[in-house]
Amino acid sequence: MAKKILLIEDEQLMIELLERRLIQEGYEASIAKDGVEGLEKMRKTMPDLILLDIIMPRMGGFEVMEKMNEDKELKKIPIIIISNSGQPVELDRAKNLGARDWLIKTEFNPQEVIDKIIKLIGK
């Protein structure tokens, strides 16, 4: 059975790029365009991993992680942050909230995302 990955991201180009790559690699990908939708999908599908943007409409990534930490099942799901910023204060906050890894949008290629996913949850 394919591992489920939830991509919570509001940039359409990033969604298309990552969704296509995840499917090529054999993962089951679902998309949420903001944190509110992301939490709803998480509760329904219980993904194996979440790729999470920080700056989004309605609810951002930090707020999503705070809500996940209030739920004993959701807080077990590993998170990889995908953000435009790599500021140390944001990295520290993300790690403190449970993020396992971090990618900066302008500096990664899709294979890097796949490598980090494999490292956390396998193929």
UniProtKB/TrEMBL annotation:
Annotated Response regulatory domain residues: 4-120
Gene3D superfamilies membership: 3.40.50.2300
Highest taxon of source: Bacteria
Membrane spanning stretches: none
Annotated keywords: Phosphoprotein
Modified residue annotations for 4-aspartylphosphate: D53
Biological process annotations from GO: phosphorelay signal transduction system
Protein name, UniProt field: Response regulatory domain-containing protein
Organism this protein belongs to: Candidatus Nealsonbacteria bacterium RBG_13_36_15
